[in-house]
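debug: dumping io for the single-chain case to check the tokenizer round-trip. Nothing else runs in this session.
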Amino acid sequence: MNNLIKNLSFFLLALFSSITYAQVVYTEDFETLPISWTINSTDLGSIGVQTIPANQWIRNNVYAPGQVPLIYSGCLPFFSFPATATPNQNALITGNANSNYLHIYYNDMTAPFNAVFVDNSVVATACGITGTNFAKMTNDVSTIGLTGVSFNYYYLGANGGNEIYFSTNGGTTWTLAQNVPVASVWTSQSIVNAAFDNQATLRFGILFNPNVNPISDPPFSIDQIEISAPITTGPIANFNASSTTVCVGNNITFTNTSSTSGATTYAWTFPGGTPGTANTIGPHTVTFNTVGTQTISLTVTDANGTDNITIPIIVVPTSTGTDVITSCTPITWIDGNTYSASTTTPTFTIVGGSSQGCDSIVTLNLTINSTATGTDIITSCTPITWIDGNTYSASTTTPTFTIVGGSVQGCDSIVTLNLTINSTVTGTDVITSCTPITWIDGNTYSASTTTPTFTIVGGSSQGCDSIVTLNLTINSAVTGTDVITSCTPITWIDGNTYSASTTTPTFTIVGGSSQGCDSIVTLNLTINSTVTGTDVITSCTPITWIDGNTYSASTTTPTFTIVGGSSQGCDSIVTLNLTINSTVTGSDVITSCTPITWIDGNTYSASTTTPTFTIVGGSSQGCDSIVTLNLTINSTVTGTDVITSCTPITWIDGNTYSASTTTPTFTIVGGSSQGCDSIVTLNLTINNPVNSTDIQTICGNSYTWIDGINYTTNTNAPTVTFIGLATNGCDSIVTLNLTLTTPTKTTNVFNECEGFSVTVGTNTYTTTGIFTDIINNCDTIVTDLTINPAPQLTLIKADDNCGENIGSVTAIATSNNPPITYSWNTGSADSVISNLPAGTYSVIVNDGSGCAKADTVDLAELQLDCDFFVYTPNAFTPNGDGNNDVFFVRGKGIATISIQIYNRWGNKVFETDDITQGWDGKHNGSDQNTAVFVYVIEGSFLNNKTFKESGDVSLIR
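debug: decoded output
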């Protein structure tokens, strides 16, 4: 059935190609102001000049009946005139019974203007006044190159004498073209005159003359004026493509659908295809191996001329893409293989996988991220509870914990614990004392103990606590008894002489015990009547006494008993009182500031207590005398004289220093507390005055600074000194750096589309307007911003029917800034794309301001009952010849229907829901010019299935 429709359309197009159509060069229907006629002209050129403006042309659309009194200046009231209604206009004029038209009107009538109009010729004739009025075109019409030019109009006039004039010199002179016949109903009239042909300044005018065959009612009216010439249509080139998109290496079949008459030649070009050209009617099957948009061309020539048509074909390459995958574990890809390492080499071909139906080659870009590892290093003096929830009290490096997804790549992160537990340091303070001691804990201990402890917080080298234990030993004083029996008094170690027996004397030997404590000795003396005697010996050397013993140290204890040797019969006890005079020792204490040469002949330059010297027989007892040197060498005292000053200083050496220095020294002889010299070093800091710059950028012509001076030019010379106000205590010197800026004003003009923004300073503007900003607190920037709205876009689709590739999409766009251009993803630049298979279609429309709007529509492949169909012709000729004058929608099984027709600007020119009502090529009563119009048809079939189609129809005159 669809092929039948296509063949029928081709037959109609071929039929119309041999018909002569009209080329319209001028129309005026008086519907829209301003009109292109001067309707009350007094300039009649060669015809003459009207001196009494009794009659006036008006633009009118009402002619109501009624009894109207007529009055003319200078005449008495005459009578009341009965007026009848204007007959309805012919539907071929505008389709409106009362559309606007030109109407003659008497100037002095009392009837309301534009309400009731009657023939004023009765009054004019009755008063003896002859009045005429002329209406004429305001602009020239060119008919250069045209023959058979006609002046066409509709008129209404019950009286005669009305005339049509023409001018071929722009209205300078006028020639009568026709006396208008009488017509009591709206009637069409056409004037054909060879004088109208091939003219550059053709004009027409209308003369109303009430003195010719005056009648009562109605007066002369005229509407729907048109100047046209016949044209002969040559061949119309057209062809169909089996597809407008093809995968590289595949075929498309091109079928000729041109309309021609007589002998015809065909010239095909297939860029990027094999074959590349053809010169037969076809069809032609072409293989495309070149990727891109290829423009297919068909030129058709017959006896009436030549026509050409091009269709863009998109040759789509094999699609390629990359499947980017990042994983922490091996993955199994679409090729069925498992990959455990990063790779960019595997590929897989998806047959027919691209959006255009071509093969799609996918490359795997795989990144396998490893599990991240790290070490948590912790040092502590106490047990710690880790992130695994366990408590660790000893150093360890083995615990691990997995943080799921914790790495920067999103993989697991394994943390190992490296724990060091530093123990508390312990130590023992061992003290031995003969007396009680007060320890570091502040307590006093008088007995030996090992129990006290003291914690030094953070005292260990690792920062942990240090615990000290006291180990105290208190040693007591040692006691003993010196038992002596004597025949004679004795002198004891306490230096006392006891001549009677006694047990009471005691003597303390300081540090005499083996532990280093005191030793207390008690004397137990028994005095016998033994005769005692003392052998007093003084010697510098050891002696061998009567007891046979040799004594090398002074002593008074050795005794020798001469049994019975005393006169009392007691033993005679001889006590040795031996004095061994030891070598005398002494210290030669010397304090000096300089090295000394001692008695041993040596020179000593450092303090010492070790050198000795023996003076033979030098003691008072005649023994040797040993002298030890105790030498103290006091060093020269050094010091630093630290001085900070803002100005040069004169120091103790008499010199003046003006720069910082640490090298000068001065010696004060005997100046130290030990009497040695004192050496002083100078550490001098000379602080300079602090310099700073006051940078001022001023919007203006002058500036008054802190010095009170008003500056009118740029400068960096003025300075002000603030005494002692610098942070180092010196002067602060401020220099002025002044820049005077003259304010400027800049105007930036933008003419942009919706979505545009401009930023000035901190302000952003997105809407139309004039905005003023102050920049840098000085300059003025004026932003003159015009935001043009984007075009309004509506897409009307007709889905593919039964898989026949007969879908279509109509783009209806409106804008305040024409013209509008269309760019489809098929490559088409028309407002309508047709012969489409199911799929997605998108369009971008641009208007004259450069603004754009985009939209997308999906066409479905509707599996309708193909016994029911809707058919529309692709052309009609509303020229009144009774043949193909009306555009009708036909079909089979149609239950309901809505028909809408739009011109190329998107304006609706016809609408009906009655399939028996067709479009006669008019809009608001006005004939539409030869053009292509878009129809939108919606409805339902008797089987309750719905349909929606759109396409284009050519109106040919």
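debug: round-trip ok. The mean pLDDT is 80.
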